[in-house]
Amino acid sequence: MLTSLSLNNVALIKKQEIEFESGFNCLLGQSGAGKSIIIDALNFSLGAKAEKGLIRSGETSLRVDAVFDNLSQEEKAFLEEQEFDVEDEVIVTRTLNVDGKSSVKINGYPTTLKTLQSFASMLVDFCGQHDSVGLLNANNHLSILDKFAGEELNELKVAISEKCDLLKNIEKQISSLGGSEAERARTKELLEYQINEIENANLVVGEDKELKEKFDFISSAENIFEKVSIAVTKLSDQTSNATGLVYEAKSALNGVSEFKDIDECRQRLEDAYYEIKDIVETLEDIKAKTEFDPRELDRIDSRLDLIKKLSKKYGAGVEEILQYLEKCKTQLEDLENSEFMLEKLNRQKQELETALKQDCLKLSDKRKVAAKQLEKQLMSQLEDLDMKGTFFKVDFEEVACSKKGCDLVKFMFSANKGQEVKDLHKTASGGELSRLLLAFKNVMLDKEKVQTVVFDEIDAGISGHTAGRLADKLANISKYTQVICITHTPVVAAKANAFLLVSKNVVDDNTVSVVESLTDEKAVIEVARLIDGKKDVSQTAIDHAKKLFE
Fold it and tell me: Which of 212-221, 229-238, 540-549 ranks highest by mean pLDDT?
């Protein structure tokens, strides 16, 4: 449960440490005093959207620390899973700067907002007039019913989930084998076409690169022939050609080769002579082979176009195309040998679908039993809240089996006897929704695991005898879980066992809100103020407040 809340620079609150008790905690104070700031701060500390407007005017940041103790086993298990130190107490810290950046810590260790929000859902349940909107969303109704039904459904839900996963896996295998007979025929035809198209091309690994080189060479044949001819002429075809000149230079040095340095030069000239002769022979060979053949160029161009076309379909380059060919052959072979496997998988699928349907129907039967109990208990709660003549019903519609079962559930409601029962969101007024939400909270007391429930003016628009009944319901909830309630209704406030007064003052030309823990005597005065509606409380109001407390 929430034991304390520390606020720094939050709206009108400069610095405040607020302590809470188990049972029923009541927040009192004039309208606008800042009661909602406390709820907003708690909500913020547990992962609500960070609003920069929450930062106190003139400050650059705010900080909220929320301390919880007596953690449940589920909460401790979550902390262990997230590798936090697990003790009986946990401190959640969240800060916000004016630049919009916020930070989150659990027991002093940084964590993500998503982790905080997951943890917070176990700690506190916020219930106000606007929170009853969740009841209006039909998408939530099945989960609410299942939560009410409790652990009795768990075994069946696990079995259904496992069967759905198995069924999905079998369908995936069937699909990989071509699916239905018609799908398999289409897949087989496509594979055969692709195999034939690739095989008819008679591709050879590396030929695309070789063809590209040939194409570039033939395209440049005239230029190559001209340049090579010039090079050959310079090296060997003139009187003063390079080969002859090098040879003559070498021969001239023969007569003085007894000198070491000269002999080395002569040797190098001899090597150069033979190197040049070899170059000439190679160039002559290139020259002889260089011929511009337009037909060969067209053939190579057509071949390259074919490879390019196949590359767009089956892979980049000849090697990848041939790899795809092997893949197609394997898939076609599997298809041709899949009759037995498909028969087996389809038989398993049919058996699994039958078993899944049976489990879903069993789950539906259990839900319908739980729905009758929910209807009975909820209508009893609503009668206690002066909503006699109302009618609540859980409507079932059978849908295709899934992990959720085969039920589409909607809550139906009629506020007055004799009126048509309609979807909850079409009939319930704001005050009726508040009482419905409170009725649900009482019905779900032993089903929900949160240890703190916050009621933010859930009694708004409710008065008289009904307000007294609502107060009894809140008091009943506080026997099972910690209740924090903002109220302006005297009879509701009088049911609390701990009181916090929020007041607004002006200090040094600055408006500040402060929170004070009240003694029983002061609590009587503040409840009397709610009755009297005056700054100076009358004795009559005080006497009335005392009777409410008694």
Answer: 540-549
Whole-number Cα distances in Å, 126 to 184, 360, 433, 479:
55, 33, 15, 18
Cα–Cα distance measured from residue 158 to residue 358, given in angstroms and rounded to the nearest whole number: 14
- The CATH number covering residue 19 comes to 3.40.50.300
CB 467 within 8 A of CB 384: no
**Residues 118 and 202 placed together within one structural domain of the fold:** no
Claim to verify: residue 235 and residue 320 sit in the same structural domain = yes
pLDDT, averaged across the chain: 83
User: Best-predicted range by mean pLDDT among 141-150, 253-262, 354-363, 538-547?
Assistant: 354-363
Residue 457 — left, alpha, or beta (φ > 0 → left; ψ -120 to 50 → alpha)?
left
Place of tokens 């007055």: 416
Q: Closest by alpha carbon to 486, among 53, 37, 119, 48?
A: 37
Side-chain-side CA neighbours of 425 within 13 Å: the count stands at: 11
298 in the same domain as 199: yes
Q: Which residue has the higher pLDDT, 229 or 239?
A: 229
Place of tokens 């050959």: 232
Using alpha carbons, select from 521, 487, 378 the residue that is nearest to residue 441: 378
Residue with tokens 């196949």: 310
Whether 324 and 214 map to the same domain: the answer is yes
Same domain, 123 and 238: no
310 and 226 inside one domain? yes
User: Given this model, what pLDDT does residue 129 score?
Assistant: 55
What's the token pair of residue 333? Answer: 């072979």
In the listed set 305, 336, 367, which residue is the last one of a domain according to the structure? Answer: 336
255, 345, 361 from 354: Cα distances, Å: 108, 14, 11
Residue 508 maps to a domain? yes
Lowest mean pLDDT among 142-151, 249-258, 441-450, 497-506: 249-258
Looking at the structure, tell me whether residues 224 and 94 fall in a common domain. no
117 falls within a domain: yes
Whole domain around residue 192: which residue ranges?
Answer: 188-336
What is the pTM (predicted TM-score) of this model?
A: 0.64
- Rounded to an integer, what distance in angstroms lies between the CA atom of residue 156 and that of residue 526? 53
Radius of gyration of the chain (CA): 44
Beta bridge partner(s), residue 393: 412
Could you give the CA distance from residue 523 to residue 381 in angstroms, rounded to a whole number?
A: 29
Residues 323-370 have pLDDT tens digits of 888 888 888 887 777 777 778 888 999 999 999 999 999 999 999 999
> Can you tell me the mean pLDDT for 135-159?
87
- Whole-number Å distance between alpha carbons of 99 and 71: 34
Place of tokens 């009541």: 26
Instruction: Kindly state the average pLDDT of the residues 168-179.
Output: 81
